[in-house]
Amino acid sequence: AIPQDLSDPYLRKWIKPDDNPIVKPDHGENGSDFRDPTTAWFNKKDGYWRMLVGSKEKHRGVAYMYKSRDFKKWVKTKLPIHSSKKTGMWECPDFFPVSLTDKKKGLDFSYDGPNIKHVLKVSLDLARYEYYTLGKYDTKKDSYRPDGNTPDGWDGLRFDYGNFYASKTFFDNKKNRRVLWGWANESDTVEDDNLKGWAGV
């Protein structure tokens, strides 16, 4: 969706373009198990935009990769960037670089150099937890492999051990940091939520 009125500082009204959605599940894939694309990033070396979409194949969690030159026509790569058996639907995937030498400095995805690893974070629909792996992203093969010492799946590393789910990050270039934000569902009853008219923060 795009803002209807760019002069509105609160961007209160949104419209869907006619060519929306720009990425659709393949024929035979369950549309309700295909969602939450990442922020797209640009690879200067080959001129392609890339993004990930969360999904599942039977009981295997999957992060599909899509590529585009014009940001309108997207093509799925031959293989998913990563998957893990018996993890179920992967919601809200996130993928970003981290520095191995400067732990206080965030990195924009356009950064390509030595001493970086990548984080692949997914929200496991079955567990309602945030799991992540740290590993190596091969930009030529569009493949990601978690480090051998990084658990991959149910026993993986978690962003948070509280009531926190469906997170995403963005890079704040003003403060040179990556910001994580997510959803916290309260313990209120459904009746209380209905009376309030909202649920979760």
Can you describe this structure?
The protein is mainly β and 201 residues long. Helices cover 3% and strands 41% of the residues. The protein has a single domain (20-196), classed as Glycosyl hydrolase domain, family 43 (Tachylectin-2, Chain A, 5 Propeller). It has 1 helix and 15 strands, in the order E-E-E-E-E-E-E-E-E-E-E-E-E-E-E-H. A hairpin with a 4-residue loop joins strand 14 (165-172) and strand 15. The protein is globular and about 55 Å long. The two termini are 22 Å apart. The model has no long low-confidence stretch (mean pLDDT 90).
Helix share, percent: under 10%
Number of separate structural domains: 1
- Give the class-level CATH name: Mainly Beta
CATH superfamily: Glycosyl hydrolase domain, family 43
Nearest-angstrom radius of gyration? 18 Å
CATH architecture: 5 Propeller
Number of helices: 1
- Main sheet, how many strands, which sense, barrel? 6 strands, antiparallel
What separation lies between the terminal Cα atoms?
A: 22 Å
Broad shape: globular
Q: Could you please say which CATH topology applies here? A: Tachylectin-2, Chain A
Instruction: Name the poorly predicted regions.
Output: none
Number of strands: 15
Q: SSE string, helix = H, strand = E?
A: EEEEEEEEEEEEEEEH
Domain Glycosyl hydrolase family 32 N-terminal: 12-200
Organism: Capsella grandiflora
GO molecular function, one term: hydrolase activity, hydrolyzing O-glycosyl compounds
Family: Belongs to the glycosyl hydrolase 32 family.
